[in-house]
Amino acid sequence: MFVGLGKLVANRLLGFPPGTVWSSCVKLYVAFFLSGFIHFAGDIMFEKRMVYYSFRFFLLQAVAITFEGLVIYIVKGLLRPRGIEFKPENRSLGGAVLRVVGYCWVILWFCLTLPVWVDAPNTKGFSSIDRGPITQFLLDVWKQRS
Prior knowledge:
Largest sheet: none
Structural class: mainly alpha
Helix content: over 70%
Number of strands: 0
Number of helices: 6
Number of domains: 1
Order of helices and strands: HHHHHH
């Protein structure tokens, strides 16, 4: 459903040709915006003070994917003149290393952003769950930035 709406916005309304970077970015941000909007309804039902937590979390995921795409584009540009192909789906050692780096990136990103969304009820004083030292540290860092 989200992909269809993203295609409608990207290709029909904005006129970006399918398969282009701009079309992909619009589809990505539409999908994550809609995910945030759906979760937004749950936020309002739970507590009106938590209105923007879902939007912030889901749009941060789209920003991370955009950043990841930019890094991949730059790395490909740097490696191609040296005759090195950047193919994470390859069954070689290099492909395995790229997959492991990708998994580490996803885990790191979720460790940094998940407390923003999941700990929202706790920051509003609804429970006193022990979040553990790492999550508490990350939550304190996010509080200082807000």
